[in-house]
Amino acid sequence: MTGPPVESPATSAGRQPVWSAEGSGWRDRRMVPVAIVVWVSCLSTHALFEAVMDHYARPGPSHDAEVRPPWVPIAPVVTSATGVLGVLGVLGALGVVSFMGVSSARRRLRGAANADGVRHPSRSVRHPRPRSWRPLWCGTVMTALGVLGTAALIGGLATLGADVVRWHDPAAAAARQGAVTVVVTVRVRSPAVASMRRTSDCQAEVVVRAMDVRGVVRSSGATALLFATGSDCGVLRRGSGIEARGTLERARFGRQPLWFTVIGGGISLREGPTWLDSANNRMHDAFFAVTGRLSDQGRVLVPGLTMGLLGQDHVGDGTGGDASRGEAPLVDATYARLLEERFRRSGIMHLMAVSGGHFSVLGVLVRRTGSTLHLPRNVVAPLQIIAYLLLAGAMYPSDSLLRAVVMGALVSWAWLMGRPAQAVSALSWTVVAVLILDPGMSRSLGFALSCSAVLGIALYARPMARMLGARMPGALAEVLSMTVCAQAFTLPIQLLMEPEIPLLSVPANLLVAPFVDIATLAGLLGMVLAPCAPALAYPPIWVSSVMTAVMERCAVWLSDGSMATMPWVEGVRGALAMAVIEIAVVIVLVLWRRRLRRRDAAGHGRWAPHGWQALRRWLGETRSMLDGT
């Protein structure tokens, strides 16, 4: 005789079962505060470390090598470490103490289990009441503070360690003494692009492996931006190892801390790129060779939309043509600058950066292929991760690309483990992992823009689409909600880069949205076919250029006139002011919506179908009538 079904503890306690929407985790936002705390901790540690180190590195009589004591070189490190650990240690200790207190209270409430698995309270049969300073809500808050304090401590320690290593790197130490002529051995980690300095033809990101200063060779691991001219640009192939003689100095602007300017003819190839880097380099050269047959707008926009590198910025391998002299392809420089400015003023410049759109398209393609072939999930998910890594290697490296590939890999791994898609949780874990492994990313505006856009879309795009769907077609509501949410979350960060508000960014994104996916797919197909079949690669690349021509027309139309942008306050003040205004607008809208709901619930509101609802109902009734006849 079987007994009654046993109810799970979660269900019997009145909570949602583990398989519900709330329990499955697709609305899990618990890691968002952790990611924010880690980000703030990394930024604060960077600022504190630089302030302390700049104070001790300031020239003066007290810093003379003959008069200062031997402990002075490590004094800034000790001071900055003490400050960071003093602030973060308090939070970490608070977290440990609160966790121990909450665990102790829960053990006393549960008691010990006997042989039958029945728990009895440790003091009496009745559950003891918790102490007044330790109610349930207090325990939850203290546990949350403990987790946040631990996250802040981990982020601060990771940043402090990275800053100390970077400060004592031989290349950074030599650059702090001023511009110095050295011989370096570097590994090129990005394709060569047109230089942002007029004194050079091209630039590439490199990692310094060794440095020879006055006959003394020292190993290094610093990252730098290398500038070259003439035929030296043809040697800068992604993944290759080179030896160069030039001037090393601290960067005047930009994210890279060091600049290395090659003295003419001072580059020699020491090690070729790997087979994967060689394949990507050949694919890029073949792709740009095919796009060279397009019009100017296609030569500029198709590479930018496909791989994140505008056509006028490409520098070839030096096998012929203008690339052998280290020049960019023959694109009208004035037209290219004007086109880039129009895209920026119209608010669609983000289309020229590789982000989640490429990976979502590739992920859907891999999943549908696996479903067609009836492949199991434990085969499709690893293939999806491999496809993401290959796509990332074929694109121009950027901070938004790093966010997209890490987040895509986390989502695929969760799918492999049988977990549902959790965009907010995956984004939070991506931020935490990237910042701990590379704390310098906390100061990257590109990484911040990508993360904030995804966060806005993941949190509020679906509710806004449901709200707008009652007044407009569903497809239009989805595009509009995604655009508004992304723009709202990224606008304060955009103002840090450019103190102008693109007033027409929402209509511009709505106009170009139907053409972006087609242009991206056609461009990726053409890039894959270009190395082996240039003739077959041209038709999809031409289709992509037709789509980008529509984007160009929209940018030209919307960017003309003085009403395209509105000036704003510069710097952090402008960003904070915009954030406050956005929060105030959201609060007003929420209060207004609640008031309307209360009015409708009281029966004072008059219901009437909106225009789109009435049209949709009329179309449905007409179709049913015609089908019935």
TrEMBL record:
Residues 1-22 are annotated as: Disordered. The keyword Transmembrane applies. Keywords: Cell membrane, Membrane, Transmembrane, Transmembrane helix. The chain crosses the membrane at residues 32-53, 73-100, 136-158, 347-367, 379-398, 410-437, 443-461, 473-496, 508-529, 571-592. Residues 339-593 form the ComEC/Rec2-related protein domain. Pfam families: Competence. GO terms for cellular component: plasma membrane. It is found in: Cell membrane. It comes from the Bacteria. The keyword Cell membrane applies. It is a multi-pass membrane protein. This is Competence protein.
